[in-house]
Design goal:
This protein has 362 residues and is an alpha/beta fold. The chain is built from 14 helices and 13 strands. It has 2 domains: 178 residues, Glycogen Phosphorylase B (Rossmann fold, 3-Layer(aba) Sandwich); 163 residues, 3-Layer(aba) Sandwich (Rossmann fold). A 7-stranded parallel beta sheet has the order 3-2-1-4-5-6-7, with helices on both faces. A 6-stranded parallel beta sheet has the order 10-9-8-11-12-13, sandwiched between helices.
Length: 362
């Protein structure tokens, strides 16, 4: 094991998702990445790697506690023992479950620097969640971080906490770069001569791919849709495609290993979600020079370049189609990459967290 680890991140589970990808990036791009460990409260290493092969690259820096459903005193004891053994300098928790278990165990075990990041605050509308998280914060006394201004405002309102630092999520801008559109389309077997709109994410109801598929009915026939990702909705979405007669206008790519190449193949990236925190996919696409359109949910607006991005109402195929048409025929020569470089480079984000860790607690 990694005795002497300086930073331990605690997440609820390790499955493909924005929060989880961010934790992995914070491990990979930390100046001393060998001194970083990620603890997943739920699941097993074998199952996680099978679903997300990327984890195999850092499997020696992953620990799974196999937490059962419901409250688990055993999980709290496990974390306490891990922290007492490894003596981390920083314990960084992400979302409500990890702050209840990880931050409290960190304080009880004597960890001096405790940081908690909220990646969205929708769960605080639940009175139970609000009470639990408020209690955990009072006991653990972590430094609170919000990944968006919207999330900071919700934390202040719902938890009556004023000291919240905003550190916006970052991506690796040296990986997500512009590239050859034609080469990318050839590599992914996508149409060369069509207007290509793409979306990426888990195929689950919350991601709204069904709304985007319906929007395609109102778009010119030279518009093709590429969908990257997999999930429980795959068969239902394919059935919808068949019902609408769109089989020749949509490509389901499944899980894509080379996401920069996927974004490079596009003319426009679309995020049609019903709910979001602070999404990374819009940042990744824009870092590749691809303009983005997204639904106005969560803090998505904060991820869009104000000069090239378009925000539309959720659950509205016609509004989405109209926004796509505006993007298609707009004459904007500005690259959204500059916006991401300025506001959302992962190196800047990690520096901000390191600076926060060095600050003395009030």
């Amino acid at each position: 094991m990694m005795k002497g680890s300086t930073t331990i991140h605690v997440v609820q589970h390790l499955a493909p998702g924005g929060l989880e990808a961010l934790a992995l990036n914070m491990l990979s791009y930390s100046p001393n990445s060998d001194d970083v460990l990620i603890i997943s409260l739920e699941g097993t290493k074998e199952a996680a790697i099978k679903k997300w092969p990327r984890l195999a690259q850092v499997q020696d820096q992953l620990l799974f506690l196999e937490k059962p459903s419901g409250y688990s005193l055993k999980t709290l004891r496990q974390l306490y023992k891990v922290f007492r053994t490894l003596k981390p300098r920083v314990v960084h928790t992400h979302h409500i479950g990890p702050v209840i278990y990880g931050a409290i165990a960190a304080r009880l075990s004597g960890v001096k620097v405790r940081i908690h990041t909220e990646h969205d605050a929708w769960h605080l509308s639940s009175r139970k969640h609000r009470s639990l998280q408020s209690l955990a914060i009072k006991i653990a006394k972590p430094k609170l971080v919000a990944d968006a201004a919207l999330v900071r405002d919700q934390i202040r309102k719902q938890l009556n906490v004023n000291s919240v630092t905003v550190i916006k999520n970052g991506i690796d801008c040296s990986t997500f770069t512009p590239g050859s559109k034609e080469a990318a389309r050839q590599a992914l077997s996508l149409p060369i001569d069509q207007v290509l709109v793409g979306t990426a994410g888990r195929l689950e109801p919350v991601k709204g791919q069904d709304v985007l598929i319906q929007a395609l009915c109102s778009l010119p026939k030279n518009v093709h849709l590429a969908i990257a990702g997999d999930g429980s909705e795959r068969n239902r979405l394919k059935t919808l495609v068949n019902q609408l007669g769109l089989e020749n206008r949509i490509t389901f790519l499944g899980l894509v290993d080379d996401m920069p190449q996927f974004y490079q193949s596009l003319d426009l990236f679309c995020l049609p979600s019903r709910s979001e925190g602070f999404p990374l996919s819009t940042l990744e696409a824009q870092s590749c020079g691809i303009p983005a359109i997204a639904t106005d949910v969560g803090a998505t607006a904060e991820t869009l370049c104000p000069e090239t991005g378009t925000l539309v109402a959720s659950e509205n195929p016609l509004a989405l189609a109209s926004g796509i048409l505006r993007e298609m025929y707009g004459n904007n020569d500005v690259s959204p990459r500059e916006f991401v470089l300025e506001h959302n480079d992962i190196k800047t984000m990690i520096k901000a967290y390191h600076s926060l860790a060095e600050e003395k607690s009030a």
